[in-house]
Amino acid sequence: MTQKTQEIIGEVLSEQKNNLFLWAPFCFTVGIAVYFGLKVEPSFWVGGRLTLTFFVTVLGLIRRQDDNALKKLGFLLSIGGLLMAAGFSIAQIRTNLVHTPMLVKKMSPVGLTGTIESIEPLSEKDGSRVILKHLNIERLKQGETPRKIRLKIRKDDGLKTGQHIRVLAGLNPAGSPVAPNAFDFQRMAYFDGIGAVGFSYNQPEILEQDHNQRRNKASWLSTIRSNIAERITTRTESPQQAIIIALMTGQRGAIDNQDWDALRQSGLAHLLAISGLHVGMVAGVLFFFSRLFMAFFPALALHHPIKKYAAIIALIGALFYTLVVGATIPTQRALMMTGLVMIAIIFDRSPFSLRLVALAAMVVLFFSPESLTSVSFQMSFAAVVSLIYFYNLIRPYWSAARRQAGFLRKFLLYFAGISLTTIIAGTATGLFSLYHFQNYAAYGLLSNIVAVPLMGAAIMPLIVLSYVLMPLGLEAFPLSFVEWGVGWVLATAHWTANLEGAVWHIPAWPQWIFILMVCCAWFWIVWKGRLKLIILPVFIILVGLTSIYKQANILISSKVDLIAIDNKSGSLWLSTGRKDRYTADQWMRLNGQAGQKKLTWPKEGTVDGFPLTCGQYGCRGDIEGHKISIAFNNKAWKEDCNWADIVISKEPVPYKACKAKTVIDFFDVWREGNHAIWLAPNKVKVKTVEEQRGLRPWTQTAANRKFSKKN
């Protein structure tokens, strides 16, 4: 390599010197992503061997460090490899530590006993949703029994956390994705320790109180949570009552569906996703008012670091709030970030830096690497990183504008700050909202300008005061004002959601485009120098690819109960509007048609826009030059096998009994999960859920477990 090239590499490395640490979570994340992207569970020692290999390499390069640019580059690449291997290894270790047995087939009815770990009240007349542990389930061996199950119980009178109950229930495996690359509830349930979901047939029989649970902090916290919810119920009215319970206990099941829809469509759903916003607000309220209170005492204020004392108080309060609202993974992540901010204040460091966010990301991913796949992790860090990056850019101008500003200018700057924050955070999280939910709240800025200041200046401070006054029985006064504030938030949400064009719906796009977009955004923020300019055309090209990506022409659900066909105009036609409604709704959302009227196949003949002709035994037609047959019974597929290119049968088709090029029957779907078919002239591409997911600990369905034993 020439001297000139080495000089260029040296200059580039010198430019990146101050931001090298920011690449640590990126490399760590890549290792975790590679692990979760595998289709086969690797040997337990793979991650450890990779980590050890890179560690030895780094040690060797440290000893030979000098000013040579190539050696510096090799050293940095080795550290990056070490971090990737460490991320891979941590994710692998976490998966093995969780070890959640997953139910592989439906069991109904079945008798079971278990201890109530948590209770979440649902909307009126819907009962409660409970998590049970310490389980004993009929017909299941101990090694096959899930660690926890989630049950919906309508008759929930007298149920409390810590009780040992017996109940007759229907259990189902955790749901698999509705389409290839769709949301994987099974994986989320696995890492939550939930191996089955279901419902109760009868009123649970309370056997006894679990004595171990009495002394367990989870039981103590659940009791506090239940008492808080009871106090709120007696002091407030619906619909605000359910929102206040969600904000103060983390239990959101009682929120009315119409209110949920309005909050989502107005861009205000994040106000109920207990995460960084709420934990940060609680810490901020405690920090401000505790410091203000201590400032009233000159002897204390002049001779003690009251700012650091206030940070400690805020950190303790944030910890209490996190425990009360359930300490979910997103809330734990928010506590870690808030804790790092307060620790930075205690040690006289800047609490608003990308390095602090990078450290928080590393800590979160170290303890729960699976959170990388969660929407809340992605959106919260995207918002924080974007805000810090933007405000670091404009800090000199913002400080100059605030300097010697009067009351009116400060008020306008406050309003401008909220608007800018909403625009930046909304834009940053909008990418993730479009990818994961296929929608974007068009008037999110408008609704957040009203709701966020109200939440920060009134609702959350009064909620903190309500916590303080509850032991004294004086919470009615602050809760009445919280109820008023929440009422305004709901009114804003409903008004905004009813505006024309309030929500933009788009079809889903491939995972690889999304990953490249995120990498481009990270490169733009972290990289120093003109090389980052190449990111702009790359990002624009990726955006263009999302608009031309072709959706699947045919979707097939489990048991072939539901089939969807996409016509040339992009509208989905469903085989039925009665069966598997959840899957139908998700398919509509993935196709960019959320909330639209469902189009169903005709029973006889055809209708405008539908590409097939239907009869008593099935439907047939031509799509993109391919002859398609949808067979409802054996007679239909036997007749069409000599004519069709693609046969989809609700009944099993014997091997080699059909001459069609592509045959998908009941057993194909049973083995491979939901199918998606893309059609083009002279080309057919079939993707399946199980092919895309592979055989992992959380994908242990009855079919692929049987298949894995054969192989």
Task: Describe the 3D structure.
It contains 25 helices and 19 strands. The strands form four sheets. A six-stranded mixed sheet has the order 12-11-10-9-18-19. α1 (3-15) packs across α4 and α3 runs antiparallel to α4. It starts with a helix and ends with a helix.
Descriptive key words:
about 700 residues, alpha+beta, six-stranded mixed beta sheet, five-stranded mixed beta barrel, disordered C terminus
Brief write-up:
With 711 residues, the protein is of the alpha+beta class. The protein contains 25 helices and 19 strands.
- Give the end-to-end Cα distance, rounded to a whole number of Å: 50 Å
- The amount of beta strand, in percent, is 5-15%
- Report the strand count: 19
Rounded to an integer in angstroms, the radius of gyration calculated over CA atoms is 28 Å
Share in helix: 40-55%
Q: Going across the major beta sheet, what is the strand order?
A: 12-11-10-9-18-19
Secondary structure class reads alpha+beta
Give the CA-based shape.
Answer: globular
Average residue-wise pLDDT: 85
How many helices? The count is 25
